[in-house]
Amino acid sequence: MIKAEHIFKNFGELHVLKDVSLEIRKGEVVVIIGPSGSGKSTFLRCINLLEKPTGGRVEIDDQEMTALRPKQVVKVREKVGMVFQHFYLFPHKTVLENLIYAPMKVKGLSREKAEERAKELLEKVGLSEKAGQYPSKLSGGQQQRVAIARALAMEPDYMLFDEPTSALDPEMVKEVLEVIQSLADTGMTMIIVTHEMGFAKMVADKVVFMDDGQILESASPDQFFSAPKTDRAKDFLEKIL
Ligand code: ADP
Ligand code: MG
C-alpha cells in the first residue's frame, strides 16, 4: 500500500501542499478532484518522489521513499506507473519500441520476451494493429492508450493517472476511460486525478477533494457527489457538472 503522511511542498515562497495525508490500499481506486492549481499534480509527483516533499513522509509497501537514497528511490519507483495529460511517448520510436524500451533497459528483459509482453498489452488496449506505427500517426486517444500500455509494460503494482483525458478531443475520452476502467476491474491499485465526474463516480472506491493545497473531503463517491460537506466542494461541483 501507499501511505503519504503530512506532506508539505513549497516552491520558494509558494506553499503548494499544506499537510496532505492519504492512504491507498491494495486494489483500491482513489480519485482526486479539485480546482486547477490546488496541488493535485504536485501531490501525485510527491508520491513517487518526482518532486521531493518539503516535509512529511511517503511509504510504498513499507519502504519509506522519503528516507531512501536516490538509487533506491528509482528502484521503488518502478512499482509505480505514471500516465500524464500529455502522453510523452518517444516520438522517434514506433509504438512497439516505446513499449519494449524500459523493460529491456531497466528490467533486463530479452527483446523477445519484451515484445511478447508488449503485444499482449497492445491487444489489451485495442491497438494491436498499430505496433509498427510512429506516435505522430496516431490520434490523441490512441497515443494515450499507448502511454498506458507503456506504463503497464513495467508491471507496476500501482498506477497514477494525472488528468489522462484532459488533452483529448471529446470523442476520444471514452476509449481512454474504458481502458482505465478495465484496469480497475482487474484489481489494479490506482490514484486518478480527473475532471470526468461520471467516470469518477463509477470507478472510485474513494473520492478525495483537494483545494488550495489541502484535502478538504474524503468520502465514498455516493456520499461525495450527493452530499458534499464543504461549500468549496459544492461550488466546485456546481461549476463542473
Ligand atoms: P493542479 O494539478 O491541481 O492544477 P499543481 O500541482 O500543478 O496543481 O500546481 C499547484 C501550484 O503549484 C500552482 O500554483 C503551480 O503554479 C505551482 N507549481 C507547480 N509546480 C511548480 C514548480 N515546479 N515550480 C513552481 N511552482 C510550481
Ligand atoms: Mg495538474
UniProtKB/TrEMBL annotation:
CDD domains xrefs: ABC_HisP_GlnQ
Gene Ontology MF annotations: ABC-type amino acid transporter activity; ATP binding; ATP hydrolysis activity
Keyword set, alphabetical order: ATP-binding, Nucleotide-binding, Transport
PROSITE patterns (alphabetical): ABC_TRANSPORTER_1, ABC_TRANSPORTER_2
Residue span, ABC transporter domain: 2-237
Tree of life domain: Bacteria
InterPro entries per UniProt: AAA+_ATPase (IPR003593), ABC_ATPase_HisP-typ (IPR030679), ABC_transporter-like_ATP-bd (IPR003439), ABC_transporter-like_CS (IPR017871), MetN_ABC_transporter-like (IPR050086), P-loop_NTPase (IPR027417)
Name of the protein this chain belongs to: Arginine transport ATP-binding protein ArtM
Pfam families: ABC_tran (PF00005)
